[in-house]
């Protein structure tokens, strides 16, 4: 059994395919590229591959990760070339490496995600004013998100949850502001423990400050995913166990 | 011409991947003044249209020609249509994102009658005049084809060209003539239509006049001049091994209804079920050879990466090399975990051994289609199947570990009585019993028998083309009777909405007078009539009322054999005498054997394929 970890990007039109669609694209690309991927046992065998996180519809990314199990070892360069040859424009394998069978799954190790978020402001504002608003927002002790969940098996019954999302925001900075168009860089919690979507942050930002934001104009790009190793944050391809 | 900018809209609509147009194996060509632009239009949403094998065949066939660029066009979903109208974006070809208004041809496939309003809505969204008579030299030529095109009369006023039969050769011939005539300066649509009218498989509705009797039926259908054929004959492909079949098909990003390779193993069907339009219009039977299928499979799998292949035909267990083919597929592709599905299996020659082999790779459900509940009624419809056939097959299935079976029936078949409906209940209960009589160790856990009853809709070119559709009241009563009879925890009973069947019946056997109904239907917002959430029966009835047309005249009236039917000027190869004979035999419950056993004299071997089927 051989385990490969690969980093890939998702851009252009391919941002409009869902996570499930992405899985199918990879499955079929593996077949076309003759990658000797392992399959599960049982009545409906499926290829053994696992993604780090599900990226929302419409979000581009420079840093998606996938773990794949192979029946035979192939050269990593050949893996990258063969797959990139058959993947659609907008999906590209950037890097890959074999990892130890003891390596924890991507889903388990991912802790943080860094995004670029572009929005249009509905009223003119100076860079200083915007920075002040942003600081006021990040200075809040609590940012409460009210989540409504449908009760299982019961129609029209909802449970309401109050969640403080402030601890899931590690940083927000203003990268640029030009003609009412602002670009923020956000470092947010990601993965199985406390995943926070950037669009939620923008909605809260609008709700809790004086900022007027055109929500429809929002465009999001993921820059990187991080795992935590002894207090520092590195990508899932760094600091790996030796094979 | 530039690409329409839909990028921002894609962020606002559901399943934006429907509108990307750059899926694997799609074509993207440079467009110049010589390029003939063809829009293959499917009047329903992407997921339905992309499951259609005919589109995949014609798309690749046309795009193999350097000078033709064929693109796909689907009905945008409701949310996308709203965005498009709001942002003044006309209907576009998925591949080029350019307005289809500027294409040379738009070819709509007619798969079901309830999609007719979607065709009109698509023309409207494209900014193209609905009526053929209102279109100018700059507008595209509107073509239709597919099963409902054998009676295209309700759409006759909207379309320019009807393709009858298998389209592979005739479409290219039509385009060739167009190309040649376009090269001259004085191209006129009317000249072009006259030129192609004599081609076998081409029907130009505007070249025929229809007269009606005062009481309603048709008095005469006559060509406008003697260069136009009086009778239009369908087109068939003689050799299925030689005809084009795609070696790559478009692989969608999103999940579609049939998201797998469809390998066509043969065309036509020899069974002769009397309700079945496909069994009549697609005659004669022609198979693809084993070697050709083996070769196609290899290429299709390599070019798509699909994990499942389906052997498509009207009755796959009748394929003469089925055993050999399935064993080859298992031997060759089991290691790659490629699943095989065999739809349309008949249980009377059900090859369980084969099914069991297939199930080693991927497990699927089992469906049986007795169609009618009693032996008497099964004989009426010429479904040559006995109760023993069914019970044996079900017993065998349970003993092999299946626990879930589906049974398909129709209600409203000619001569049906409540005793026949009792038969449906009795069969379902027998299936349940059969499960409990199977040894516990052998049978699977959790029995579920699904019984589906659709409403029988009489179709043109079938022995039942003269028969009335049951009235709504009669259908409701029968459905209620079955709901009561099938109350059991082990049985799930599904039935179709009778009102959609009623509208289907009207358009299936309609004539040209229905064009104003369709046009009015569009005006008042009728579209996606095949979708329960959009279908509005009362609105339709109001439309019929306003147009002073009685829908029951089309749906619920028994025709006499000597009445001129709206599709009588079309020749599908099966003679009217044969259909009359079959209808008479139905009344007395007399069976007609499979054509593979004995020729039933339907007429298809007269002039279509030199004497043998």
Automatic annotation (TrEMBL), chain A:
- Domain named DUF2344 is located at 3-198
Which Pfam families does this UniProt record tie to the protein?
A: DUF2344
Xref: InterPro entries: DUF2344 (IPR018768)
Per its UniProt record, what NCBIfam families does this chain match? sam_1_link_chp
Q: What is this protein called?
A: Radical SAM-linked protein
UniProtKB/TrEMBL annotation, chain B:
MF terms (GO), sorted A to Z: catalytic activity; iron-sulfur cluster binding
A family per Pfam: Radical_SAM
SMART domains named among the record's database cross-references = Elp3
Check the record and name the CDD domains matching this protein: Radical_SAM (cd01335)
Give the Radical SAM core domain ranges. 255-494
Transmembrane annotation, as ranges: none
Task: Extract the PANTHER family matched here.
Answer: RADICAL SAM DOMAIN PROTEIN, SLL1084 PROTEIN
The name of this protein is Radical SAM family uncharacterized protein
Q: Which organism is it from?
A: Alkaliphilus peptidifermentans DSM 18978
- List the top taxonomic levels of the source: Bacteria, Bacillati, Bacillota, Clostridia, Peptostreptococcales
